[in-house]
Amino acid sequence: MSTPYVELLSPAGVAESAEVPLAARVPTLRGRVVGLLDNSKSGGQPFFDRLEELLRAEQGVAAVVRRAKLAAALPAPDDMLEALARGCDLVVNGIAD
Description:
There is one protein chain. The chain has 97 residues and is α/β, with parallel strands linked by helices. The chain has a domain at 33-94. The chain has 2 helices and 3 strands. Strands 2-1-3 form a 3-stranded parallel sheet, sandwiched between helices. α1 (44-59) links the parallel β1 and β2 (63-68). It is elongated, with a radius of gyration of 21 Å.
C-alpha cells in the first residue's frame, strides 16, 4: 500500500532583475518634438491638454505629437511606439485616472 502525500507548491517565483539605465536627458525642450502617449484612462486627456499648453508656452517646443492607446489594459501597438520613436525627440508616457 502506498503512502499518500501532499505536494506543496510555492507561488513565489524567482525574480530576475536586469537594471535598465534611464534615457539621457535632453539639455533643453526648446525646438524639440515631444510625444505624449496617453493610456486612455479618464484623467489622461485633461492632463495632457494642460501639459501640451505648458510645453508650448513655457518650454518653446517645436511640436507636440499626441497618441492614445486603445485601452489602458492593452499595450501600445508596436507601430505606434515606432512612429513616436522616429518622429519625436522624447516621449512622455502618462498614466492617469
